[in-house]
Amino acid sequence: MSFVDTLRQWDEAVTCADSEDLSEALRIFLSIQEPNSKICFDIGCLHLLNQEWDAAEKAFDCSIRKDEHLAIAFFQRGITSYKKKRYEESLADFQRAFKALRGNQLIDYKALGLRYILYACEVLHNMALAEAQLGDWQKAQQNLAKALDYKTEAKLSVIDRALQSVLKQKLFKLVEFPSKLLFKPNKNYVAELEKKDYLGKAKVVASVVPQDDFSGFAPLQPQIVDGPVSPKEPEVLRVLEGEPHTVLFEFIPETSDELAVVPGNIVFVLQKGADNWAYVVFNERRGLVPYNYLERLEITLASKQDKGTTEPPNREPPTRPERIQGLTPGENSSGNAQPREGQPKDNMCVVKVHFTFNFTVSVPRGSSYAVLIGKISEKLELPATAITLSLDASGQRHIDANTAMEDVWSRVRDGHVALWCNTKEQSDEQPQNEIHMVALHTYESPNPEDLNFQQGDTITLLSRVNQDWLEGRCSGNTGIFPAAFVEEVPMNGQ
Fold it and tell me: Which of 97, 88, 103, 100 is nearest to 125 (CA)?
């Protein structure tokens, strides 16, 4: 079967699937003699919709054989094995899918014809569920803690709910791929399948000259007296979005909504704010640039002729203007630009809180202790009186209502600061005399909040997180670790 025939059948099958005729779509897919990895994946998805587990597994096997780097195929085969209650095989496939992500937070398959984003945190979520089904709650909790490092804002609640379920040793819901989504062939290739008449049909053209009865060939004659001397300006120059400007000085952004440009770049100003900042587009990227770094450019056909490249000016750039309010394409009725959704203001600070799990809150920089503890207590759903904060992991540098908050905000770097959080119930469990533990096994974890140690190391107990996890200090490092990996050293044995 030729590539054109395969492409045509692939497109027909996807069209049937889009119109909910899944049986016809599957029949067309199965008639393709030499399916590629994407077509095999589509076949597996349709079998999965029909709950034909064995057929779906064989199709995903075929997809993986043809493309061993297709992470989404491993993910789907892992879901199939989970449906068949073969949890060890399911766990292995989820692990292969995570490995195929190669440390990336996500893979967007849109460029390959599949409108789906595979998130690393969801793969780790399903790994943890398979381990929970196998009774390994400790590894399930480790994978969910690892998922927090890969999470996105949209997936945060899913991971948090799963972590709470694991702490109670309860199962949670599997994250599934919507099997009605299929790989589609390249639309440009599909467009070439249609027959085209490049010559076209003959057309009768009437003369614009009155009483013109000449039937032969002659040069085209001008029909307008005293017409324009210069050529007409190209229409493409009229449809460019924004006003063209030349960049005079190099601009290095300091916030995520600003745009880096260098002298000689041509940008198009979409909006200009009252604070002397301009919202521009350059190479399909949009952002803020100081307007006094720009010079208006008149683009005409004459300006392009007999002109070389303009040299950048040899003078110092002007002072960076103050940001009054973030400028975006949308403005309110008063003409002031509204900040983009999800974009923190310049005076906001992101506080990363180390707890049993890590989380973040945003508060205005310079806030009082009451505002800070209020945000954290709201996040943890605990009263503020039950929470203690500190500037270090050892808990020695406490933060309370008597703390000079200038010390806290002086630690802010790039709009972020880290704090450590504990509950008073956990603090009350710590005895007055230090308790020492000895490591029965080596514990190594990639999570930054975990404490790594070797077999035989001595660990000082700081607090008890819960019945399965402890917090301690070893070799100058502080973190949490599994309680099953250590045992307490008797007082007379020290």
Answer: 97
